[in-house]
Design brief:
By secondary structure, the protein is α+β, with helices and mostly antiparallel strands. It contains 4 helices and 11 strands, in the order H-E-E-E-E-E-H-H-E-H-E-E-E-E-E. The chain has a single domain, classed as paralog of FGE (formylglycine-generating enzyme).
Length: 259
């Protein structure tokens, strides 16, 4: 028991003593009417700290990952206004232009991205990978949340806690952003990412730009929602659903590649 604890402490020290992320300064750009924040390359600790008593082993082991290319990530989740402009409809449960679009499944999101890329004359927009998403969500932090480890501070950054599904999402940009200028990375709506889900993927994940398994049954969504408990809004939390899953607390955030 003592030996195991010492090994864990040694591993934690070895990981945390390495440089984990690049120096950061905001750069904003607007593409296709959406405001993006530039994410610089860097490294971070992906996954859950072993001290957290959670039964879900899919967040383990915590491992060092490096994002080698810069990219732009949406400052907010994609709004109903933007979805309507691109797709000509609004599937959301509660209609409001500046709330995130919801009730969109992973396949719907791919159709949106295909149409947006066609309108913009390129193929630069896509969902972030799970690693890109967590890198941006952590914003240089190693704590449970981007702002620290105290769930009592969560209300400053996130909409959450309506566990009976009686409410709805909220307008974007109404809470504080994380340290890299991104809003609602915790809460409001879950966010689809690009990867297939594999509960054991972290055991053999590449340490540079991991893209997830080549195939699978379920797609991953991250970040928690207005329905969730604080434990389900942690930066490392992983959930998954069929690509056809639609609920009123799942939406998405866009990534724009830098050629």
């Amino acid at each position: 028991m003592v030996t195991s604890k010492l090994l864990n402490l040694a591993l934690t020290f070895a990981l945390t003593s390495l440089p984990l992320h690049a120096a950061y300064a905001f750069e904003y750009q607007v593409f296709a009417g959406i405001r993006f924040v530039k994410m610089e390359p860097g490294c971070f600790l992906m996954g859950r700290d072993t001290d957290i008593k959670e039964k879900n082993a899919s967040e383990l082991p915590q491992h060092r990952v490096c994002i080698e290319k810069p990219f732009y990530l949406g400052e907010t989740e994609v709004t109903q206004e933007k979805w309507e402009k691109v797709m000509g409809n609004n599937p959301s449960k509660v209609k409001s232009l500046y709330r995130p679009v919801d009730r969109v499944n992973w396949n719907d999101v791919q159709a949106f991205i295909d149409r947006l890329n066609s309108q913009e004359g390129g193929h630069f927009f896509r969902l972030p990978t799970e690693a890109e998403w967590e890198y941006a969500a952590r914003a240089g932090s190693t704590s449970l949340y981007s702002f620290g480890g105290n769930a009592k501070d969560l209300a400053n950054y996130a909409w959450y806690g309506d566990e009976g599904y009686h409410g709805a999402s909220h307008e974007v940009e109404k809470k504080q952003p994380n340290n890299w200028g991104l809003y609602d990375m915790h809460g409001n709506v879950w966010e689809w990412v690009q990867d297939w889900y594999d509960a054991s993927y972290y055991q053999n994940s590449p340490d540079k730009d991991p893209k997830g398994p080549p195939n699978g049954q379920y797609k991953i969504y991250r970040g928690g929602s207005w329905v969730g408990k604080p434990v389900n809004l942690r930066s490392s939390i992983r959930y998954s659903g069929l690509p056809t899953t639609r609920t009123n607390d799942i939406g998405f955030r866009l990534l724009k590649e830098i050629p």
